[in-house]
C-alpha cells in the first residue's frame, strides 16, 4: 500500500501503546471470526467502489503504450522492497514505502484501471513472496480502496478546477488520499478486534504517515514535472531521489535501533514480571514449577521475539532442571512432524553466539534439521551460563524482508539471548533458594514454613482433614552414642518410611529433630486413627545403623478441624500445635492419641501463666517465702532458703514446679531470679539492722549460669542493699551445671571469688562423684530430701546419707540435709555429724510476717531456756 500496509500474520493487531493481549483462546477465535467478516466487508466495498470509479473515469488507453502497466507494476514492487517496516508491538506491521512516487506519476501516464492492476499485482506478489497468506484478501481489499479513493479524490479536484487533464494539485491530493485510506482501514481493524488504541496514538500515526506520503508524493511529482518539462533534467531528479533514499535508509536504521531497544526492554520486563509472578505464587506450586519457570509465561516472550524479528516462528527450548530434558515453547506456526527436541545439529551448538543457517548453504546435518522444521533459514543461539546449556532460541524464516534475516536481526537476537540466559539463570537460582527455604535440607521433605504453605488451602476448604505429628524418641540417644551422622541417617530412613506409608501425594514435613508432620485428607477420624497406628507400627520397627540394630519407639498425635465440633476455624499452626499436644499426651502403651479439647487446657494454663507473669510481679501476686535452716546440734538459725510463691487470681495458689519451668522456657527466669534476689537481700538487710546475721539462699537456673552478665548484676544488688557477700548463698543443681559446664564454671568461679557461698542442691541424684565435687568451686552440699525421708526405713538411703556427709567433710564442705520431718531423722543426722538441717520438723516455708513471728518465738524460748539453766546452776 502507499504509505502503510498490514503484513502481520497474527490475528491480533495491537499497536505500540495498546494493552497486552491476555485474551483466552475462545476470545481469539471470536476475534478471528470478526476479522474475517471485516475482510469480506473491505473486499466487497473495494470491488464496488472500483467498479463505480471505473464507470466514472472510463478507460482511455493506447495499445502502443502497453509497457506502462508492467513498468508501473515493477515500480510499485521496487518501492515495496525499499520500504521501511514499522513493527508495532504484538501483531501489526505497517510499512512506510515509496509507493507514493509511482502512484503520483501514474496519475499522469496511465488510466485508473492500469494503475489499479499494477498496484494489485505488486502488492499481492509481495505478500505471497513474504508468505503472509493469512491476510491476502484483506490487503487486496485495502489495495482496491486505496487506489479507488485516490483516483476519486483526484478526479473530484480535477472537476472542481475545471481542467480537462490531470493537474498536479489533483494528483497530489489523490496520492495523499491513498495512505490516509489505508491507515483508516487499519485503525478500523483494531477496533473490530476490540483492541484499545489511544486517540493520541492514532492521530500521531496518521500525521506521520501523511507527512511521509506528502514528501514522497512531492518528490515524485516534482521529478515527473521536471523531466516532462526538460528531458535533460533527469540526472538531477535521480540524484534527488537517491538522496531521499539515503535519508530514508538512515532514518530506517535509527528507527530499527529504537525498535530493537524497545523490544529488548519489553522482553526484559516480561521476564522480570514473570519472575515476580512466580515468586508470588503459593509454595504449594514450587514443586510443580521446576526451576521456578512456568512454561506458559515464556510463550508471551517467544511471541514478542517473533514479532520483532518478523519471523514465521520462534522456538524456545528451555532446560528447567539440570538433568531434565528440554521443554519446547513455540510462537507462530506449529512445528511440523516429529520434533526431536534438541537431538539435532541446530541445538547441539558450541559457544554462545548466534548462528545463521540457510538451507541452500548448510551441511547435510543442518539441512536435515531445517527440513524437519519446514523452514528455509533459521537463526539459532544457545542460552548458556557458566558453560551450562540452559536452552536454545530459534527464529525461522523472516517474513518482513525480501532479503531474509540480516545483521541487525543477528545482533538483536544475540542480545536478547544474553538477557534471557541471565534471567533464566537468575530464575533457576531464585527457584533453588525458594526450594531451600521451604524444604528440609537433610530429608528433602517440606520444612515447617513449606508445610504451612502447602496445607493452608486444603485445610481451608474441607473438614475431613487432619494434621498428623510423629516423634521418634531415640534421636538424642543415637546422637549422643554414635554421633549426629548416624542420627541423621535414622531421620532420613524414618522420613522414607512415612512417605512409603502415606504415598507420594501427601504433604509431609520434617519439623525439627526427629519430628515429622503430615496432612491427611479425605479420611474420617476413625480412619485417621488407623493411619496413625500404621505409621507408629512402621516407624517403631528396628533401624539398622551400621552393624547395629537400634530399637525405636514412635509417638503419634493428630488433630482435626472438627475437634472443636466445627465451631472454631483453625489454621495450620493451630492444628500443628494441637497435634503436638496430642503427642505430649501419649503415655506408656498408648502411643497414638487424637487431640481432644481437654488436652489443651493445661497448655492454655501454661500460656496464661507466661503471658501474665510480669503483670503478676507488678501486682504483688508473686511473693517470697522463707524456710529456715538451723545448725546441728546447737539449733541456731543460720539462714533461710528463699522460695517463690504465686497466688493467681484465677488458678489460686500455683506450685513452683508448675510455673517456674514455664517461666524458664519462656526466657523470663532472669526476671524471676532478680526479683527473688532483691527480696532476699532486702530481708537480710533488715535482719542486719536488727543485729541478726542470717544468710539467704537463692536458687539459680541453668539460664542464669549461661548469662555472662549475671555476676555483675549480683555485685550491683549487693552494693545497692549493702549486704556482705557471705550472707548470700546461691543454690544450683548438679544437672544445671553439667548441662553446659564450659559456660557455667567460669560464672561460678567469678561468684565464688566475690565471697558468695555456693551450694550444690539435690546432691546424690545427678552426676555426684568426688571428681565432680573437686572441680566445682562450691562451699556446701545439700543432701536430696528423698534420701533423708527414707533413712528411717531404708538402710540403703541411710548409707547414702552417711557417705555424702563423710565425702563433704573430707572436702571441707558444709553438709546440709533437706527434708528433715521427724525427730529420729534429726538425731541420726546429728549423730553422723551433719552440719545443717532444713525441713518441716524445723519449719515450713513461711511468708515474711510469719517468719518474723517464728523467729521471735524461737528467740523467746531460747532466752527462757538460758534463764532456767542459770537458776539451776545457782541452786
TrEMBL record:
Keywords: Membrane, Transmembrane, Transmembrane helix. Residues 1-30 are annotated as: Disordered. PROSITE patterns: EAL, GGDEF. Residues 606-859 form the EAL domain. The chain crosses the membrane at residues 38-57, 103-129, 136-158, 170-193, 205-227, 233-251. This is EAL domain-containing protein. Residues 21-30 have a biased composition (Basic and acidic residues).
Amino acid at each position: 500500500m502507499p504509505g502503510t500496509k498490514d503484513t502481520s500474520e497474527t490475528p491480533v493487531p495491537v499497536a505500540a501503546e495498546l494493552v497486552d493481549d491476555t485474551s483466552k483462546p475462545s476470545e481469539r477465535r471470536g476475534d478471528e471470526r470478526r476479522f474475517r467478516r471485516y475482510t469480506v466487508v473491505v473486499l466487497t466495498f473495494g470491488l464496488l467502489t472500483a467498479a463505480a470509479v471505473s464507470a466514472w473515469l472510463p478507460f482511455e488507453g493506447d495499445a502502443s503504450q502497453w509497457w506502462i502497466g508492467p513498468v508501473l507494476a515493477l515500480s510499485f514492487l521496487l518501492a515495496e522492497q525499499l520500504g521501511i517496516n514499522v513493527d508495532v508491538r504484538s501483531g501489526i506491521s505497517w510499512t512506510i514505502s515509496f509507493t507514493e512516487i509511482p502512484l503520483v506519476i501514474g496519475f499522469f501516464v496511465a488510466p485508473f484501471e492500469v494503475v489499479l492492476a499494477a498496484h494489485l499485482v505488486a502488492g499481492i506478489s509481495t505478500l505471497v513472496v513474504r508468505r503472509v497468506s493469512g491476510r491476502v484478501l484483506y490487503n487486496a481489499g485495502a489495495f482496491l480502496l486505496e487506489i479507488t479513493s485516490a483516483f476519486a479524490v483526484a478526479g473530484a479536484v480535477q472537476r472542481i478546477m475545471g481542467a480537462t487533464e490531470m493537474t498536479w494539485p489533483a494528483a497530489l491530493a489523490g496520492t495523499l488520499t491513498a495512505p490516509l485510506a489505508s491507515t483508516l482501514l487499519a485503525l478500523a481493524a483494531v477496533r473490530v478486534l476490540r483492541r484499545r488504541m489511544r486517540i493520541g496514538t492514532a492521530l500521531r500515526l496518521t500525521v506521520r504517515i501523511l507527512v511521509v506520503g506528502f514528501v514522497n508524493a512531492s518528490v515524485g511529482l516534482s521529478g515527473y514535472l521536471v523531466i516532462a518539462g526538460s528531458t535533460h533534467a533527469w540526472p538531477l531528479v535521480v540524484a534527488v531521489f537517491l538522496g531521499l533514499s539515503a535519508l530514508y535508509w538512515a532514518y530506517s536504521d535509527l528507527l530499527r535501533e529504537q525498535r530493537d531497544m524497545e523490544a529488548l526492554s519489553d522482553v526484559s520486563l516480561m521476564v522480570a514480571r514473570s519472575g515476580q509472578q512466580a515468586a508470588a505464587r503459593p509454595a504449594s506450586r514450587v514443586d510443580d514449577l521446576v526451576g521456578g519457570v512456568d512454561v506458559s509465561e515464556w510463550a508471551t516472550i517467544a511471541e514478542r521475539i517473533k514479532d520483532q524479528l518478523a519471523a514465521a516462528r520462534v522456538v524456545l527450548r528451555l532446560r528447567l532442571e539440570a538433568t531434565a530434558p528440554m521443554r519446547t515453547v513455540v510462537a507462530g506456526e506449529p512445528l511440523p512432524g516429529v520434533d526431536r527436541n534438541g537431538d539435532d545439529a541446530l541445538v547441539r551448538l558450541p559457544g554462545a553466539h548466534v548462528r545463521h543457517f540457510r538451507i541452500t548453504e548448510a551441511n547435510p546435518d543442518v539441512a536435515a534439521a531445517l527440513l524437519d522444521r519446514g523452514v528455509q533459514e533459521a537463526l539459532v543461539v544457545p542460552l548458556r551460563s557458566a558453560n551450562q546449556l540452559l536452552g536454545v532460541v530459534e527464529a525461522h524464516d523472516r517474513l518482513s524482508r525480501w532479503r531474509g534475516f540480516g545483521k541487525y536481526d543477528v545482533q538483536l537476537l544475540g542480545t536478547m539471548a544474553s538477557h534471557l540466559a541471565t534471567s533464566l539463570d537468575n530464575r533457576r537460582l531464585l527457584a533453588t533458594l525458594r526450594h531451600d527455604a521451604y524444604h528440609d535440607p537433610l530429608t528433602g521433605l517440606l520444612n515447617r514454613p513449606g508445610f504451612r504453605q502447602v496445607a493452608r488451602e486444603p485445610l481451608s476448604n474441607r473438614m475431613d482433614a487432619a494434621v498428623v505429628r510423629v516423634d521418634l524418641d531415640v534421636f538424642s540417644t543415637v546422637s549422643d552414642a554414635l554421633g549426629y551422622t548416624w542420627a541423621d541417617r535414622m531421620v532420613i530412613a524414618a522420613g522414607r518410611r512415612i512417605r512409603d506409608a502415606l504415598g507420594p501425594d501427601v504433604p509431609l514435613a520434617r519439623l525439627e529433630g526427629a519430628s515429622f508432620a503430615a496432612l491427611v485428607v479425605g479420611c474420617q477420624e476413625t480412619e485417621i486413627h488407623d493411619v496413625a497406628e500404621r505409621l507408629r507400627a512402621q516407624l517403631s520397627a528396628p533401624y539398622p545403623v551400621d552393624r547395629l540394630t537400634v530399637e525405636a519407639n514412635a509417638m503419634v498425635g493428630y488433630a482435626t478441624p472438627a475437634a472443636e465440633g466445627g465451631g472454631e476455624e483453625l489454621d495450620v499452626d493451630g492444628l500443628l500445635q494441637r497435634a503436638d499436644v496430642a503427642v505430649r499426651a501419649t503415655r506408656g502403651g498408648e502411643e497414638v492419641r487424637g487431640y481432644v479439647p481437654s488436652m489443651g487446657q493445661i497448655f492454655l494454663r501454661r500460656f496464661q501463666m507466661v503471658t501474665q507473669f510480669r503483670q503478676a510481679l507488678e501486682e504483688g501476686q508473686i511473693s517470697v517465702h522463707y524456710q529456715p535452716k538451723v545448725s546441728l546440734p546447737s539449733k541456731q538459725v543460720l539462714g533461710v532458703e528463699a522460695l517463690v510463691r504465686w497466688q493467681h487470681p484465677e488458678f489460686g495458689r500455683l506450685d513452683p514446679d508448675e510455673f517456674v519451668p514455664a517461666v524458664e522456657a519462656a526466657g523470663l527466669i532472669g526476671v524471676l531470679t532478680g526479683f527473688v534476689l532483691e527480696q532476699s537481700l532486702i530481708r537480710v538487710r533488715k535482719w542486719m539492722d536488727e543485729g541478726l546475721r542470717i544468710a539467704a539462699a537463692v536458687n539459680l537456673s541453668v539460664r542464669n549460669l549461661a548469662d555472662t552478665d549475671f555476676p555483675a548484676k549480683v555485685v550491683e544488688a549487693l552494693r545497692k542493699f549493702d549486704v556482705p557477700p557471705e550472707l548470700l548463698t546461691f543454690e544450683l543443681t548438679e544437672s544445671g551445671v553439667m548441662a553446659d559446664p564450659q559456660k557455667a564454671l567460669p560464672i561460678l568461679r567469678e561468684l565464688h571469688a566475690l565471697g558468695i557461698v555456693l551450694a550444690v542442691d539435690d546432691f546424690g541424684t545427678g552426676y555426684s562423684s568426688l571428681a565432680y565435687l573437686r572441680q566445682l568451686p562450691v562451699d556446701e552440699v545439700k543432701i536430696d530430701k528423698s534420701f533423708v525421708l527414707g533413712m528411717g526405713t531404708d538402710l540403703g538411703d541411710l548409707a547414702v546419707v552417711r557417705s555424702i556427709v563423710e565425702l563433704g567433710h573430707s572436702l571441707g564442705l558444709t553438709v546440709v540435709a533437706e527434708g528433715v520431718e521427724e525427730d529420729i531423722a534429726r538425731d541420726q543426722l546429728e549423730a553422723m555429724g551433719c552440719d545443717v538441717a532444713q525441713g518441716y520438723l524445723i519449719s515450713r516455708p513461711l511468708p515474711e510476717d510469719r517468719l518474723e513471728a517464728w523467729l521471735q518465738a524461737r528467740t523467746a524460748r531460747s532466752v527462757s531456756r538460758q534463764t532456767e539453766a542459770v537458776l539451776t546452776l545457782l541452786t
